[in-house]
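ERR on first pass: missing label on line 2. Operator R.T. fixed the label and resubmitted. Corrected input:
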Amino acid sequence: MSKILKVCSLATALLITSPFAQAEENFMSWLIDFGRTKEVKPVTNMQYQKECGDCHLAYQPGLLPSKSWAKLLTPEALEDHFGDNAELDPATLTTIYDYAMENAADKSFYKRSRKIAVATEAGEPPLRIIEVRYIKRKHKDIPEEMVKGNKDVKSLSQCNRCHTQAEKGIYDEDTVRIPNYPDWDD
Amino acid sequence: MKCYLRSIYIAASLCLAASPGMVHAAGNGQQIEIPSVSDTYTKGSKSYLLALNDAATPSQNQANETQAAQPAEFEPPLFSGSNAHKYLGLGTLALVVATAIAPKPAEVEGAAPTQAQLDEQNSSAHAKLGRAAATLAAATAMSGLLTHWDDFHLEDGWSDPDNLHALLGTAGALAMLAAVNQAPAGGHAGVGMAGGVGMAIAIKLTW
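pass 2 clean. output:
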């Protein structure tokens, strides 16, 4: 019986000290939830989806840490949002800012977000998802001709060109299809 | 022998269960929508200026030009290394539970066991299930190494979920192998259970 107690204690200690438990979400709900959380939490806020999705894929907040969103979602930053004016009225900006902050990578227990949070803990906050060390590494072996030289992709920032379920927050390799390279396999 | 074969059949069934696409689809917990057909987003559209060189920015932002792409029809493969690894791991857990609840022969303590006692130990359902679980655990660790070799990076530290998963999963598999090696001597149960728990936590961390 003492062995069982020891094993249970070890398991409890491991779970409690895991990075998931330390994320600012409900640990118990994560523990008893058997739904899959290995990807990135899909966007659930309609306003976020509409405002961001009007111009580009509404990138899930879990793809960047909160310190990145804090830099990106200010009135000044949105005036020059990667070359575009993406200004929002204050009420909308507040809603989007709050949603992004609450669901940022470092607040999420979704696995891929946790990896992004770990990869961005130190140093300057990345302003582009593709600047995240983890994301960079995942794409480093893809030949340039399949991205920049691919007329149907052009850039790694166009996630949903290859990640066929990007809008649902699913980025695993099984759902990748590079346009014009149907036989590609990592 | 019959019992041993039965445990092998269970293990094989669990492995086969790894392949069906419906299992994969259910695992995502979301309805899979087939992306709509579109090859119309190219053809010289200026929207791609947004993407040039990743760091480039468009001089204009015309919403209708930069809308999200609509990938052509695509269905995830029915069988993949990743799926196989997942179901091997789940199969291992199922066998660990089966091993724990299977009837056990009395442990041999003190004096050296007779050949008859050893035969009885080795042919018990518990022993066969334990061996099957340890074998499946080793297969899980190997398949993880093969299919996810590029997901482990020590520079991310041990708080990285994949690093932790690999560490706990490998330790769990080794503990199970050690337990099988140690059996039927007393004390192997704790090691085996620790292995099972390690694998369970590894799975939960990346589920």
